[in-house]
Each structure stands twice: as C-alpha cells, then as structure tokens.
Design a protein that fits this description.
- This protein is of the alpha+beta class.
- Strands 2-1-4-5 form a four-stranded mixed beta sheet, with no helix packed on it.
- α2 (11-24) packs across α4 and α7 runs antiparallel to α8.
- Helices cover 53% and strands 13% of the residues.
- It has 18 helices and eleven strands.
C-alpha cells in the first residue's frame, strides 16, 4: 500500500474530512444515511471499508442524480454521493491538493486554496483597463458531464504518480448514477456535486491554462468558465477559432459554438458580474441578472402567505442579504441597494400589518411607532387592502430604525459599512 494512500486513510486526515463534510451538511445519498447518522455507521464499518480500499476492492455507491432549477431557466443536474463517499473523496482531496497545486496556473481561480471569484474579476478588470477590451467567452458544453475519463486519468497519473490513489479516483468516476430509481453507468464525466469534481476539473483544464500562457494571452479561468481578453476584434476572432480547435483536439472536450462568442465587456456576464465604462475607466457591478435573482429571493422570503415567525424570517433575510453583498462587495451597487431596501421595507411593513390582524391592534401598533391617532386610524381604515395601505404615511412610521431594532439588516448600510 502506497504512502499517499496511508496518509489519505490516516485517522487525522479522515477526522478532518468528516468535520468538513459535516459542516457542509447536504442531503443523503442513495443509502439514506444522513450526515448526523454517519459517525455511528463508520464506527461499526470503518475497519472493513479501510481494508477493502487497501485491497482495491472498495466499490463506491452510485451517486443520486437530482435536478436543481437554474435561475435563468432550465435545470442543472447534480450528483449526490453517499455521505461515506463524500468523506472519502474529501480525504483524497486534502492530500492531493498540495501535490497538484504547484502545477496550476496563477490565472486559475476556482476551487483552490486562498483563491476566489472576486480575484478573477479584479484581474479581468486590470486587462480591460490596460486596453484588452475584446473578450473571447468560451463555453464548454456540459463540461462535467462530458469529461473523457481516460484523458483525465492520464493527467491525474502524470501529476500524482500513485497507482493506488489513481485506482480509487477512477472508481469514483465510474460509480454510476441512480436517477428515478434506475442505475446508469458513468463512462464519461465527473459528477457535479462530488467532492472530487472541482479538483479534477482543474487538473483537466490545466493544459488549457498552460496553452493560453504559452501563446501570451491574457485570460482568467474559474472552473469551466474561461474568458480571454485581447486588443482587437480580428485577434479575438482568430483566438476563438484556434483555441476552440485546440480544446476539441487536445482535451477531447466539446465547445458550445452557439454560446462561445467574441463580445465587448459591457455585454459580458462573468461569475455573476457585469462591466461598465465610467469615463475612461472600466468598473464592475453585479450583473442585472444577479440583481434580479437577489430581488426574487427577497420577494420569496417576504411573502405574506408564508406562515413563519418573524425571528426566523428576519434571520433568513439577513443570511441572504449578507451572503449576496459579501460576494458582490467589490462592485458598484449603491443605487440598486437603495431601491431594494425601499421595496424590502415596504414588504416587511405589510407583513407586520397582516400579523396585527385587527383594527384595534393596528391602531395600537402604529401609535406605538409614533403615529398620531388620526394617522393610525386613517391607515387602519384600509383594512386588508395591502397595496393601498402600504402607501399610507401611517405605515411608514414602521421606520427603518424600528425594523433595524427588530433585527433586519439594511442592504445599503451593510454594503457601505
């Protein structure tokens, strides 16, 4: 048994893998063992599992195929491995990461230690402001579903040179999927949703990074999202044609020619961001699709018909607000957030109005918020005509400060602070 496999299966490494999988929570796989139940299962079965891995007899469970709706329509197919397999995959990732990292490009930002999407955006902005304003936007068709496993395993072998580990990784690729109760083989692709997929995608596309570097091109890549910035339209079209052919010939991947295009920065959506020229300088902001998606989430969480207590509702709203703003913080979005805050407060006032139910309670509530009696009674007169009552001066007495005391985060204040 190789030293690398011993390190992967060591007690310390497995404990760390278990902690990471548990922290990420996630659904059960085909065996229905949950994250909370897995420790008990491993106590009883780990010795046997470990021995089977050592003897190369371990067989991972098929992944459970689920369909996740995409924000812009359509579905994304995710594969959920069993919790046990997620832990083993995570254990492999922890030990092969330090081996593969030195061979990766500095222009690759996805699923790597101390790297994130925002760094790719900042680098792309640098290119734009240096005059490389023609963008080649490469779209790899169903990348995770179409990766040629033999090509991938050859690349894995070249970097890690450990037959035991390679054999286990290969078994995960070939574990198959269960979809609507039916088993399907997986002779191509790497399941999107598995812990190994991100690092395998970087190994697969590292050759593309190196080819782009060798050609002296300015590019950024985040997983399978790659954009190249060049100085002229003619150069951009030439690069698009030659790189597309190279990807299909060398990596055996399919480029989606209906989505691959040469575009200007103002028409580009990359990692959720859009680009706009202010004077003579390119700046970044959340793309309008990302803003609409954020608004849809807030709208869903502020439905009057959703019977949930106010503390839970505010907690979930704050979680979404902070997460979205933290991701897009490098972008300009003051005006958007001001507008979103206004809508959000209106919807929160209507929820509170509905919860007060009776006319007396509503008058009492508005008086408590500082409205004079005549104003409170005027608003109460609108009863359950929510759209109309939302516009009354009385309801606006449920102020930003009162909502903040209740715990609601202001989008604009959170961004500015």
């Amino acid at each position: 048994m190789s030293q690398l496999m011993d390190e992967i299966l060591s007690r310390e490494n497995m404990k760390l893998a278990y902690k990471k999988v548990k922290a990420n929570k996630g659904a059960s796989g085909v065996d229905d063992i949950s994250v909370d139940e897995v420790m008990e299962y491993l106590k009883e079965n780990w010795a046997d599992i470990k021995e089977r891995i050592h003897k190369r007899k371990y067989k991972p469970q098929p992944v459970l195929r689920v369909e996740i709706p995409k924000a812009g329509g359509g579905v994304r197919k995710l594969g959920i491995p069993s919790v046990v397999d997620r832990i083993i995959e995570q254990a492999i990732v922890q030990k092969i990461t330090p081996i593969v990292e030195p061979s990766f490009s500095e222009y690759s930002y996805g699923f790597r230690p101390n790297r994130r999407a925002q760094q790719a955006i900042i680098k792309l902005l640098e290119y734009l402001n240096d005059g490389y304003t023609y963008i080649v936007d490469i779209d790899l068709e169903k990348f995770f579903d179409t990766v040629p496993q033999d090509k991938l395993m050859t690349l894995v072998g070249k970097i890690i040179s450990d037959p035991d580990t390679e054999s286990l990784i290969s078994k995960y690729l070939k574990a198959g999927v269960m979809e609507k109760g039916k088993y399907e083989q997986t002779n191509v692709g790497t399941p999107q949703g598995g812990n190994l997929s991100p690092i395998l995608s970087n190994i697969m596309l590292n050759g593309l990074d190196r080819e782009l570097e060798a050609r002296g091109l300015h590019f950024v890549r985040y997983a399978d999202d790659c954009v190249i910035a060049v100085g002229s339209s003619a150069a951009a079209n030439r690069v698009m044609n030659t790189i597309t052919k190279w990807i299909e010939r060398k990596l055996k991947l399919k480029v989606n020619m209906t989505k691959t295009k040469v575009t200007k920065p103002s028409h580009l959506k990359y990692l959720g961001f859009g680009f706009v020229k202010m004077g003579d300088k390119w700046e970044v902001r959340p793309h309008q699709d990302s803003v609409k998606n954020f608004e849809r989430k807030l709208k869903r969480l502020t439905k009057r018909s959703w019977s949930v207590d106010m503390d839970t509702r505010i907690k979930m709203l704050n979680w979404v607000i902070r997460g979205w703003i933290n991701y897009f913080r490098i972008g300009k979005m003051k005006e958007n957030l001001k507008r979103i805050d206004g809508h959000l407060r209106t919807r929160m006032r209507v929820i509170i109005w509905k919860q007060w139910k009776t006319s007396q309670k509503r008058v009492w509530g508005l008086r408590k918020c500082g409205a004079p009696e005549w104003m409170a009674k005027q608003s109460a007169g609108f009863a359950d005509h929510y759209q109309a009552v939302a516009k009354t001066t009385g309801l606006h007495k449920i102020s930003k400060e009162i909502l903040a005391k209740r715990g609601l985060v202001s989008c604009l204040d959170y961004y500015l602070n």
